[in-house]
Design goal:
It is built from 11 helices and 13 strands. By secondary structure, the chain is an alpha/beta fold. The strands form 2 sheets. The chain has a 7-stranded parallel sheet with strand order 3-2-1-4-5-6-7. A 6-stranded parallel sheet has the order 10-9-8-11-12-13, with helices on both faces. Helix 5 runs parallel beside helix 9 and helix 7 crosses helix 10.
Length: about 325
Amino acid sequence: MKILLWHVHGSWTTSFVQGGHEYLIPVTPGRGAYGAGRARTWEWPMSVREVTPAALRDEPVDVVLLQRPREIPLAEAWLGRAPGRDVPAVYVEHNTPRGDVPCTRHPLANRADLPLAHVTHFNNLMWDAGRAPTTVIEHGIVDPGARYTGELARVAVVVNEPVRRGRVTGTDLLPAFAAAAPLDVFGMRVAGLPALPGLPVDRIAVHEDLPQHAMHDELARRRVYLHPLRWTSLGLSLLEAMMLAMPVVALATTEATEAVPPGAGVLSTRPDVLADAVRRFVADPDWATYAGKQARDAALARYGLKRFLSDWDRLLGEVTR
């Protein structure tokens, strides 16, 4: 099957393109938001091929995987075929709704021609999709292996754009966590973090835009993984940390309560409880190692790549039948 999709979410796409299909990724001059091409910090197989918008007219695309509303008219313009009408298509919703939650209307609400696939049951619950056909295909993760050593008595955090996104990513909570243990923050556009008021510069270090394999190595050296995001679908970095066999401390919001079972870490809506858990994990390597093993077992059981790809093959087969 030949699938057209845009490079939007690097970690999710890394898992998706492990299937047995050919994947066409639009590339434009400057590699902007709608033409990023192949990933540069993730490892993708050779079945992922860059294609220019002009060349797409000559590609016999079997199905279009949409991830943003703007991609619908772009696909029609570039393919010469309308997604959902002239060529089968699925819309993947990666995000939690914003705005008037829980009454936020999805952009595809009531569109019967474009099945809507949510990545978490929480998202499916919270978005108002009207009569649009919906399903849930939970995340699948390429297993990075049990790399955990926990040799550094520090806390790992992965978050993108924490300065701009602020309360969404729990950036305002970081000073309290930094008081409990030193933080290492990984992600995109994290360089401005130490300059924020209230953050002790001697208790926080930032690591920007590492390749995925290098970031996994660095995460696994930290004693515990912290997930401070208030409103996110389900951070794939949280699942990756669990598969690395790291113990996790996370806000009990959105889908985190489903992903992290008892014994794999500590979940709470109370920042003081989470800060105390961080402090205790850092002070107790044996407990951290035990909880990390529970986290890895849970992540492998629920978010394995085989199940993920099988679910997607089933859905793609249904829409192209």
